[in-house]
Amino acid sequence: MSGESPGDAPRTGEITDRILVLFTEVYAASEFDRQPLPCDIYTQEGVVRAMKGQRVPVERLANSWIWVDKTFARLRGQAPVNAPVAAPEEPLPAIAPRVATHPSQSARTPAAHGETQEEEWREESADQLERRSDQVAFEPFAEVRAGFKRNLHQCKELFQKGFLGRKIILTSKNNKAISESLVSYLDELLTQPFHAADYIELVNAVRQPENYTTYAHPSGVTFYAMAIMRKLMMLKEDFLEKRNIGRWLPIKTRKNPRTAGALPFSMQLSRYFDSQKAGILLKYKEREREDLLEGMNDLMHEYAALDMARDWPSMRVDYSRPNRLLVGMAALNCDIAKLILPNEVINKPDSLDPVEMQMMQTHPLLGIFLLKEVGFDSPRVLAYILGHHRLLPAGYPPLRNNIFFESRIIGIADMYDAMRSPKFYKGALTHEAAIVELEKIHQAGAFDAPLWIAARHTFREFNHDLVATRNRLSIAPA
Ligand SMILES: [Fe+2]
Ligand SMILES: [Fe+2]
To answer: What phi, psi does 40 have (nearest 5°)?
Structure first.
């Protein structure tokens, strides 16, 4: 999404095609008193006030804003956008309908609840997603496939919206219960890294612009945030609290024969993964196995090189299961408010203008209001959401207090996932390019060293070329 990166300065540059003007600048308000609206209308803050086709009293039109293209403004000799202008004498011709920016958008869906509102693009349904997941190139563990299918239906249920009077609302009343169930599944899954690798590979296999908002992005962010939490937990418990890092080192691998220890290789592996299922490595061919081990070896060496005398903020975080679940729930819902922002802004291919940028930046706060309305009242979850774009002073929203460190974990997962996602307005970055971008944000001071190490290794572990193109041995899934 535009505005994903807290390091981004507001974008200027390209002239945008559309600008916001007062409704009364284009239409005679009196003609639309309780009549179907000719287009969506917005508040001055840019939040949707009513959708095209809805009927609202004339008083609500007086201070409403709509999108028009710049040509219109030029023809009208447009005054500054923010200056209220008297209604024109004659109603102008209706504004051309919004233009779809993707082939799939030509299929329009009638909105729920009998409204005549039109969707900008069609979100892929859970069933369509499920069907495509059946055609992916590899055969994941059966239980992973089952969990994946359940999750995608849950996600789709969470991200539903409807219309009540003039308001767009979330319609999933059991958001909290669904979020809990989904993240406790992921928490369990992450204890087995190669089941987890299957899961994220499935998510990536079905990832499309058509399911970005309501499935792929929330799933990815939650997965990565929880995976990073586990790596930091391992570090905190075994390294800082128990002073135990030595038992992981050295690890013998083929590339690193000098580090061969006296223990049989299989036992070293077991220790390396601690309680995790090292045996699943058998699913990989030798080269991949070595690469994965080298990656984990690097992780341990980087951990070991940390200055233990320093007070790292990430080492003060509570990594117990309850808090891991709360972080997961926040990650899952952190962008839920984008459901009610106008699609022109969400999918805009060009830079956002200041008004649109302002609109985009309401989403953390707006999300909290929406979640409260559906009974989602966990204060910590809401606080984690609030700070997820506030990693640098330039981030948003402006907050007086320090953010919870957990928000940074969600923030880095969010940025990585957004950079790696195909969207309507731009393609995905490669893993390497995304890491380069994140490195800049890290250098600006957004993350502490343990978080940066844990995150970088998490992303590599699940997005390394060898994982994407891995050549599995023909062993039947357990
Ligand atoms: Fe966000
Ligand atoms: Fe996001």
So the answer is: -65, 145
